[in-house]
């Protein structure tokens, strides 16, 4: 495995962590998984304004958002079914890169179609910030931005390409971050284009 680049304190970036064959295998597993737990359109708390990113989850817990608020729950918000199990390849990535003996409890699946983006935010709905978050990117390249713990802190931008892994630990765990845009046609992995981001997370303290 190539050495990671530290793009902000505690934020490690492995370019090309997954080779093409591993990316294709993961996409095939995700196709089956999304047939069980279909993508849903999250809505903003209170206003109900839809996100441009569509989502699903796997693992014991999943992140959902609607008029009632942001939360983790064990079931899909539309089907009421438990989330599917983690694909083995995701657990292997966590073992390789996360640097903790704790198991992940949730994996949020973000799907970016044409024009989808994610505004600058912090991930604070977990009850555990000591554990890292691990992100894997598949499909079209994203222009990803990360700053500091305050919204106004300076930011740095990197392009997350298909197969890249990003670990958010230490000070970067509570950094503001977002996706400014996705570059159409930048990958041949997903036949219909678009981008998938997977984030493995710990929700509760060990
Ligand atoms: C920095 N996802 O799901 S992945 C998210 O590309 C999210 O879909 C983006 O932000 C995406 O919450 C960014 C990289 C990432 C993931 C989680 C983080 C960066 C993070 C948590 C804390 C700090
Ligand atoms: Fe986030």
Q: What does this entry look like structurally?
A:
- This protein has 206 residues and is mainly beta.
- The chain has one domain: Alpha-ketoglutarate-dependent dioxygenase AlkB-like (Jelly Rolls), CATH 2.60.120.590.
- Helix content is 13%, strand content 33%.
- The chain has two helices and 13 strands; from the N terminus they run ββαβββαββββββββ.
- It has helices at 20-36, 88-97, and strands spanning 5-8, 11-14, 54-58, 62-66, 69-73, 106-112, 118-121, 133-139, 142-146, 156-160, 165-168, 177-182, 195-201.
- The strands form three sheets. Strands 1-2-11-8-13-6-3 form a seven-stranded antiparallel sheet, covered by helices on one side. The chain has a four-stranded antiparallel sheet with strand order 7-12-9-10, with no helix packed on it.
- A hairpin with a 2-residue loop joins strand 4 (62-66) and strand 5.
- The longest helix has 17 residues, at 20-36.
- The chain is globular.
- The two termini are 28 Å apart.
- Bound molecules: N-(carboxycarbonyl)-S-(naphthalen-2-ylmethyl)-L-cysteine and fe (iii) ion (FE).
- Fe (iii) ion (FE) is lined by residues 121, 123, 177.
- The site of fe (iii) ion has 3 residues, from loops.
């Amino acid at each position: 495995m190539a050495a990671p680049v530290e793009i902000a304190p505690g934020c490690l970036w492995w370019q090309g962590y997954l080779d093409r064959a591993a990316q294709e295998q993961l996409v095939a597993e995700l196709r089956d998984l999304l047939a069980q737990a279909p993508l849903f359109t999250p809505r903003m708390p209170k206003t109900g304004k839809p996100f441009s990113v569509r989502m699903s989850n796997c693992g014991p817990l999943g992140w959902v958002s609607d008029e009632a608020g942001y939360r983790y729950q064990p079931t899909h918000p539309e089907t009421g079914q438990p989330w599917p199990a983690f694909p083995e390849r995701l657990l292997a990535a966590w073992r390789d890169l996360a640097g903790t003996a704790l198991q992940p409890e949730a994996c949020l699946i973000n799907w970016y179609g044409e024009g989808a983006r994610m505004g600058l935010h912090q991930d604070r709905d977990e009850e555990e910030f000591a554990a890292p978050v691990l992100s894997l990117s598949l499909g079209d390249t994203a222009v990803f931005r990360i700053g500091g713990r305050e919204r106004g802190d300076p930011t740095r931008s990197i392009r997350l390409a298909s197969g890249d892994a990003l670990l958010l630990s230490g000070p970067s765990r509570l950094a503001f971050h977002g996706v400014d845009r996705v570059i159409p046609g930048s990958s041949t992995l997903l036949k219909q284009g678009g981008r998938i981001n997977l984030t493995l997370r710990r929700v509760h303290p060990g």
